[in-house]
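Let's practice the habit of predicting before peeking. Look at the sequence and jot down your guess about where helices and strands might fall. Then scroll down.
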Amino acid sequence: MLIAIAGCTANAWRKQAGTHWRESIETGTEFRHRLFFKPGHGDELHIYIEGDGSIWRNPEQLSPDPTPAQPLMFELAKQDPAPVLLLGRPCYFEVADKQCSPQWWTSARYSAAVVASMDAVAARWATRYQSVMLIGYSGGGSLATLMAAHLPQARALITVAANLDTDAWVGRHRYNADIVGASLNPMRQPPLPPRIAQWHYAGTDDENIAWSWIEQFSARQLGAHFEKIEGFDHRCCWSRRWPALLAPALPDESGRAQNSSR
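Done guessing? Here is the structure:
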């Protein structure tokens, strides 16, 4: 039964990915990661990280496979003219990793071990480019933010509807704190280095992640850009506006973000 469920999930996201990507699997520090690469223009690699996906199979059972059936990041990344690496999280996109267990998509989803493994893969790819921009959606935004602090090549960070204060998220939804008990909370980390330009986007109609948490996180950073977008919720309508939301963070000829003073 679990094999059938996983197979259906794989068919869904592979169909969405289409034929524009080169797939591979790489090992980070201790996890295997499925990678999707799309060639593009320029000397900056854009690393996209998907959200938390399908955590629960039903209200009482965890999902055997956390991979979202319709990953949002494929929709965004297809519109990005730069070289793109969609970096799979541990245990996502069917990596057949013996390390996998539900803790890696529940309590330890944003743990130091997960961040270190993803950073290891990102760092290897970063050596091929002049700089890196990290882009994360929802829980992937949490990981992108945590990764940026340890990736020397990171020039910019974009988060979309990101869970940047897991304590506030647990409190609002009245979850048991153990749901992210082994994870790092981005809000509790030191501000990112000023060399990293930041854009944090939130939807006013998002019932999962409050825009005020993202605004508060941005206020703690050094020169971060925050924008709340009327009518957007946790899923809609990021793909429709993505080229315009991405544009301010793209580097100019000097390598700096186009509207950044840094």
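How did you do? Confidence is low (pLDDT under 50) at residues 1-7.
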